[in-house]
Specification:
Layout: H1 5-13, H2 20-31, H3 37-50, H4 54-66, E1 81-85, H5 93-102, E2 108-112, H6 122-127, H7 138-148, E3 150-154, H8 161-173, H9 179-192, E4 197-204, H10 215-228, E5 232-239, E6 247-249, H11 251-261, H12 272-288, H13 295-308, H14 310-321, H15 327-330, E7 340-345, E8 350-355, H16 357-367, E9 383-386, E10 393-394, E11 399-405, H17 408-421, E12 422-425, E13 435-440
Parallel strand pairs: 1-4, 2-3, 4-5
Antiparallel strand pairs: 5-13, 6-9, 7-11, 8-10, 8-12, 9-11
This protein binds uracil (URA).
């Protein structure tokens, strides 16, 4: 029976702790239509200001999980591990990580999201491969995992439907940026997908979705909540002040990943930061899955695997099994290109000091790579190529970036944003590691 929603809203508004019954009753009521959008919005705003305690966060997470089906991967008799990123610019690590970790006979059931706002989404990148399907049913997902250890899909309707409905409401009521709400939203999805371990990649910097002082708290909350449901977890805080790698977009990011995975293709220094983050996350996943004694061992083995070409073969197997046309992966040059392009050049001599991720993310959206609204369509061919990374020496007139899109108007807007995001210093700028901090269960 539905409790009086107004009483529950008042209780949280006045700063009191909600019980398990109250939280679950409210969420159940919202999912089945007995609680209105305006009442849910009021509770979300009360939570936004008052926060949730650890127990309340756990009950909210459980309420989300119980609103749908939990994937049962128990018949897959191997370690199962996933990674979740809080969202970055040019963050294409999943495309390499998933097949890489799967090469170690570890199951990687990766359920990813679409791009929204300035952060890109793994699903949009995968769908830029002609034919690639990310809408597999739960049964198809499990079948693919059984056969090749890896499958990458989108959120199904069956998993945590309460989160889906509430996230859409948070998006339009200014209640996304709350640690407890983010924790329940992310952790519930990772727990419901049935993995035993998860590595959280928490992005820090201009292209991240959260301010720096909140990141530690989010990392600890995510780890604690995962652990409470019996899931091993570790968080890595990584730098997102500038885009990862040399590409921002959809197909351009797939192309960069293929160059890294296919040992026959050259990789330049422009992709080094992407490699650093990918190998670290792979090492962390292998360590958490019990395959590597330490993250360092996992990193070393992952590097060897990449060089062996096995990861590339695994990626091709995955593309094929999910309906993608591997011709495009084997010959990267047959992909159609955008109609319009332009170069962005250095306006002085010096050292590249700033390549602002947020500006690049926003420019990518303007070019059509991402969405302003959830129902926008994306242009898979559009994108940004970065030709100089922070720390590089530049001369006036050197190309820093190339932009691609379907109209001159789009290029104009993107160019303006990029000009604001590029900074050249007369003094040398040092290269920095992208790995800022590791937090594990012992730290919470
Ligand atoms: N991503 C999610 O899935 N949920 C949030 O609440 C925030 C980011």
């Amino acid at each position: 029976m539905l409790m009086n929603p107004v009483e529950i809203i008042r209780k949280k508004r006045d700063g009191y702790e909600l019980s398990e019954y109250e939280i679950k009753n409210f969420i159940r009521g919202y999912v089945n239509g007995e609680v209105s959008d305006y009442q849910m919005s009021a509770l979300l705003m009360a939570i936004y200001f008052r926060g949730l305690g650890n127990e309340e966060t756990k009950f909210l997470t459980e309420a989300y999980i119980e609103s749908g089906r939990k994937l049962n991967l128990s018949k897959l008799n191997k370690p199962k591990v996933d990674k979740h990123s809080t969202g970055g610019v040019g963050d294409k690590t999943s495309l390499i990580l998933a097949p890489l970790v799967a090469c170690f006979d570890v199951i990687v059931p990766m359920i990813s999201g679409r791009g929204l706002g300035h952060t890109g989404g793994t699903l949009d990148k995968l769908e830029s491969i002609p034919g690639f399907r990310t809408d597999l049913s739960a049964d198809e997902f499990i079948k693919n995992l059984e056969s090749i250890n890896v499958c990458m899909i989108g959120q199904t309707d069956e998993l945590t439907p309460a989160d889906r409905k509430i996230y859409a409401l948070r998006d339009v009521t200014g209640t996304v940026e709350n640690i407890s709400l983010i924790t329940a939203s992310i952790a519930s999805k990772k727990i419901a997908e049935g993995t035993e371990a998860v590595v959280y990649d928490i992005k820090c910097g201009s292209g991240a979705n959260l301010s720096e002082d909140k990141l530690d708290e989010l990392a600890r909350n995510l780890i604690r909540t995962s652990n409470e449901f019996g899931q091993k977890a570790l968080a890595v805080i990584t730098d997102m002040d500038s885009p990862l790698g040399y590409s921002v977009g959809n197909w351009v990011e797939v192309k960069e990943c293929v160059e890294i995975m296919n040992p026959k293709l050259p990789v330049t220094g422009l992709s080094l930061d992407l490699l650093e983050v990918t190998l670290f996350l792979a090492g962390a996943m292998l360590h958490l899955a019990g395959e590597a004694q330490s993250i360092e061992d996992g990193i070393k083995w992952s590097g060897d695997k990449l060089l062996s070409g096995e990861v590339f073969s695994k990626f091709c197997e995955m593309v094929k099994l999910q309906g993608g046309d591997v011709e495009y992966i084997h010959d990267l040059n047959i992909y159609p290109s955008s109609e319009y392009s332009r170069t962005i050049c250095a306006d002085s001599d010096g050292y590249l000091a700033r390549l602002d991720a947020l500006s690049f993310g926003k420019a990518a959206v303007e070019l059509g790579c991402g969405r302003k609204k959830t129902d926008d369509t994306v242009d898979h061919k559009a994108g940004i190529l970065i030709r100089k990374k922070p720390g590089y020496e530049v001369k006036k007139g050197d190309v820093i970036s190339e932009i691609y899109g379907s109209s001159e108007d789009k290029l104009d807007i993107a160019q303006r944003l990029l000009n604001e995001g590029i900074g050249i210093s007369p003094n040398p700028v040092s290269f920095k590691s992208k790995i800022l901090k590791v937090i594990d269960s012992k730290d919470i």
